[in-house]
Amino acid sequence: MKSKDNRSMVVERYTLTDRIAHTVHAIAMIVLIITGLKIYTGWDFMSFHTARGLHMIMVPFLLAVNWILIPYNIFSEGHGFLGKISHFTDHYIFGPKDATRMGGIIGNFFRKGRYPAFSIYDEEKGHYETKLHPLMKILIVLEGTAIFFIAVSGIVLYKLDWSLFGLPIGSWILSAGSLIAPVFDMTSLQFLRALHLLLTYWFVFELVIHVGILELDPHVWKYYKAIFWSGKEDLSDTHYSEVIEKYSRFDAKECKPKKH
């Protein structure tokens, strides 16, 4: 984008580690869904042992990305402790501004008003105020919760007496499951297996929402290029994006009528 004084406004939207995290996350999630459903349903496009092997290979990649790399990427942004907290809440927590944007999105669906920008870049501060569609901020919280529970339930499906550093993690999980399972007239293992499968279907549903609905729009394809390859965004394309120009604030102050 060229601003009023013809300066380029191609900016970095995603760092290299952001792109690595998203790419590995996407590959691991797709492989886990396919192999997990193969293991459960018995599809015959690959052997059980191959599916299980691929499944177990992808698990540490998914957990490392979500529990190490993504938190590192999030909290490496912003200056100082309060700046990092502010960055986290602005970019990943659904707030009042997101609720307003969500209202505008719903209104646009009923042909009332323009689809609001959800990618907002502050030129004066030199960084994004927000990058995500407001619905994605809700899905991120749900996804993080789902990843935790599918990992926990997956431990006992892998090995009932799994332990770490001598701690009987598998037994603890089975004991926790036994507190809830009787409500559904199940054993602890049956409940954890059902939970694991249900969360797999949740990830399929989320994939449809994330890719098939929110981003099945040619004007959003620029974000695919940014997150998988270039990391850059050209803000001259104003579909879903907005720039807060530092000069516009200065001009507004200059044009403000003086009191006599």
From TrEMBL:
Domain of life of the native organism: Archaea
Transmembrane portions of the chain: 20-41, 53-75, 138-158, 164-184, 191-213
Keyword tags: Membrane, Transmembrane, Transmembrane helix
Keyword Transmembrane helix annotated: yes
Aminoacyl-tRNA synthetase found in the keyword field: no
Protein name: Cytochrome B
Organism: Methanosarcina baikalica
